[in-house]
Write a structure and sequence with these properties.
By secondary structure, the chain is an alpha+beta fold. It is 21% helix and 13% strand. The strands form 2 sheets. It has a 3-stranded mixed beta sheet with strand order 1-5-4. Strands 2-3 form a two-stranded antiparallel ribbon. The longest helix is centred in the middle third of the chain and has 13 residues, at 79-91.
Length: 156
């Protein structure tokens, strides 16, 4: 898509300028239509194109039959509590293998809920292995990688 063309409807943030090239274009944040846009800095600093790790992630998840995502636009509504209880309920069937990934970077609480805080993940040539709270229930959380529960997550 050229810098002078507007992006297709639906890909442009609602508060973008009229001639926005779209956040996925090569000119995102730098095109003439971006001048003065409230999203200009965000668009100009985000990576262009698809994430190169997507095929690797897709391959690793190919054998996972069911994937559930628990989310909300509001904090404090019980997402982690629900996730933990659901995981324990699913893992009560010993024929199932259950994994939980805690992606809450603001307050990763699943290790506390699951009874595995202060554990450490195992790192190998195949990547990181989750902490197992039961033979068939593994937990992975950013909390396992922080030095203490008061530490902030800093992305670079």
């Amino acid at each position: 898509m050229a810098d002078t063309q507007a992006a297709p409807q639906g890909t442009v943030p609602d508060n973008a300028n009229e001639h926005c090239p779209g956040p996925e274009s090569e000119g995102a944040g730098r095109a003439a239509g971006c001048e003065g846009c409230p999203n200009q800095e965000i668009c100009s600093t985000q990576a262009a194109g698809p994430d190169p790790d997507l095929p690797i992630v897709a391959e690793r998840l190919a054998n996972v039959r069911h994937k559930l995502l628990v989310l909300s636009g509001k904090g404090g509504v019980g997402k982690s509590t629900f996730t933990g209880q659901l995981a324990f309920a699913l893992a009560s069937d010993s024929d199932r293998e259950v994994g939980v990934v805690d992606i809450d970077i603001c307050g990763p609480s699943l290790p506390r809920i699951m009874g595995c805080e202060r554990e450490e993940v195992h790192r190998s040539a195949n990547g990181w292995s989750p902490v197992f709270v039961q033979d068939n229930l593994g937990v992975m959380s950013i909390a396992f990688m922080l030095p203490d529960e008061e530490s902030a997550v800093i992305w670079r």
